[in-house]
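Structure tokens please, single chain.
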Amino acid sequence: MKRDIIGVSACLLGINCKYNGSNNLNLDVVDYIKGKEVVLICPEVFGGLTTPRIPSEIQANGKILNEEGLDVTENFDKGKQITLELLKKNNCKYVILKDGSPSCGYRKIYDGSFTNKKIIGQGVTTGYLIKNEIDIIDLKT
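Here you go.
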């Protein structure tokens, strides 16, 4: 019997790839993936952004700017494409993502004002994965 392979936001498994250089270790995710094959993903790193990096948020016009006003949309677009290629190459049909991120948010994202306000929405990678038939496993991350 073939097992499902799951893509997982690397920060949720303790990899220090978060914008501030730390991680979002989530023990519920660690427990969920025990005995399963996983592919670690970080679209922002895949897109060429450094760790640590200046925080970025999606703006009302769809562009992604960092807190200093630099347009990093191209990095996010590259990251979402590399993420999908990696998932497809590994036959992943499911992902566990870090909610809130401008890449991986799947229920809420920051509103673009850099004031810590969240709105209902999806990160750019999440939307791209869903359009390409990758399902989100919601563990309330």
